[in-house]
Design goal:
This protein has 17 helices and twelve strands. It is α/β, with parallel strands linked by helices. α11 packs parallel to α12. The structure holds D-xylose and calcium ion (CA) (2 copies). The site of one calcium ion (CA) has 4 residues, from loops.
């Protein structure tokens, strides 16, 4: 079954920009060195288990459309083992370095938590063997605290402390399994940590609960010696009307408010979540970098005409080149990477579609990396930004930055030196033209 599912697909190879085959990399040449580092090590790309192997193509209007033999009826643990075997066959043929999973993507839910944990432990052994055999690594693990009906009113923010406790127990196990598999990060996405209506919601209490929960997770991370960061993934809404981890700035404020701004937590920024929050993807990454919270990226794209999380594969070269330039300029990923939290459309139901989707996403990022390198090597864009703030290097700017002047002293200087700033162009159109020339 495993051999037959992807057997029609040859391992994907680099064929250069003029490659004939639709299933070849035109730009992703993993050993190619860019700015002193191999492409593979820059991009640290991952395939996600949930969209690619767990989802069957169901949407709110219709049932599953996908051809996925491991989703057929049968013994749940046997199916999970088959799913894992198929997934690692996919990773190998694709030549991707990492994967990501939720506990319930790789292992079934039992009748009790003890039973679920036992199966997850068994599946962790199965995953470990596949990882050992293929060399594919774990970018991050996470717990699904949103699918089961017990979580319909939230997990950590649930009005019922027993649900809080259940969620805590699930995260403990998922974090430990992530550690066992050498995961580079652990992700916390608050899928239902928000509200449907304020009529039944005590917001202060729910935020306090979320703060308590995150403190407990951080304590456990230290207790077991998990070395990777905890990554909170912002999203403004969907499934709930409002989610507390609305955007990067909201999570930054939350971490500070609850005594969590101590380096344990960073952010996992998702492109489609950024646009749902009314920001650009680049804005969210820029904020995370500015706040010292940049961790990892969930790579996908939304649809400008649809107001929900469509999780499509990325293809916007212009946007991604600027984003890569920004990330490279800040030193690149440390533990993070680009996880394709993206799904094929419902009509793209067969095995081949999974490859077209990922090959396209990987090639887009590789090409964006090459363009970002040109942007930085040329240096005009960063130099123009630097020049815009050059005045801060002068004595007045330096004194303000060094807290040497009070508001009154600044006011005195403006009057005594007759300071009279002149307008300067922002040169937006010139910059847009400059960027177009790199593409
Ligand atoms: C859903 C989220 C989710 C997280 C992991 O919108 O993107 O998949 O990445 O729980
Ligand atoms: Ca995501
Ligand atoms: Ca999403």
């Amino acid at each position: 079954m495993v051999d037959s599912f992807f057997s029609a697909i040859e391992p994907i190879r680099y064929g250069g920009p003029d490659a004939e085959s639709a299933l070849a990399f035109r730009f992703y040449d993993k050993d190619r060195v860019v700015r002193g580092k191999r492409m593979e090590d820059h991009l640290r790309m991952a395939v996600c288990f949930w969209h690619t192997f767990a989802w069957d193509g169901t949407d709110m209007f219709g049932s599953g459309t996908f051809q996925r033999p491991w989703q057929a009826a049968g013994d749940a643990l046997a199916r999970a083992k088959l799913k894992a075997a198929v997934a690692f066959d996919f990773f190998s043929r694709l030549g991707v370095s990492f994967f990501c999973f939720h506990d319930r993507d790789v292992s079934p839910e039992g009748h009790t938590l003890a039973e679920s944990n036992k199966m997850l432990d068994a599946m962790a052994d199965v995953l470990a063997e596949h990882m050992q055999r293929t060399g594919v690594k774990l970018l991050w693990g996470t717990a699904n605290l949103f699918s089961h009906p017990r979580y319909m009113a939230g997990a950590a923010t649930n009005p019922d402390p027993e649900v809080f406790a259940y969620a805590a127990a699930q995260v403990k196990q998922a974090l430990e399994v992530t550690q066992r598999l050498g995961g580079a990060n652990y992700v916390l996405w608050g899928g239902r940590e928000g509200y449907e209506t304020l009529l039944n919601t005590d917001m202060k209490r729910e935020l306090d609960q979320l703060g308590r929960f995150m403190n407990l997770v951080a304590e456990h991370k230290h207790k077991i010696g998990f070395s990777g960061p905890l990554l909170i993934e912002p999203k403004p809404r969907e499934p709930t009307k409002h989610q507390y981890d609305y955007d990067a700035a909201a999570v930054d404020a939350f971490l500070q408010h609850y005594g969590l701004a101590n380096g344990d937590f960073r952010l996992n920024i998702e492109a489609n979540h950024a646009t749902l929050a009314g920001h650009t993807f680049e804005h969210e990454v820029a904020y995370a970098l500015a706040a010292g919270l940049f961790g990892s990226i969930d790579m996908n794209r939304g649809d400008t005409l649809l107001g929900w999380d469509t999780d499509q594969f990325p293809n916007d070269l212009g946007e991604l080149s600027l984003l890569l330039a920004r990330v490279l300029q800040a030193g690149g990923f440390s533990t993070g990477g680009f996880n394709f939290d993206a799904k094929v459309r419902r009509q793209s139901f067969d095995a081949e579609d999974l490859f077209h989707a990922h090959v396209g996403g990987m090639d887009t990022l590789a090409r964006a990396l090459l363009i970002a390198d040109r942007i930085l090597a040329d240096g005009k864009l960063p130099a123009l930004v630097d020049a815009r703030y050059a005045g801060w290097k002068n004595p007045l700017g330096q004194e303000i930055i060094a807290h040497r002047l009070s508001l009154a002293q600044i006011a005195d200087q403006v009057i005594s030196r007759n300071i009279d700033p002149k307008p300067r162009s922002g040169r937006q159109e010139m910059l847009e033209n400059l960027v177009s020339r790199y593409l």
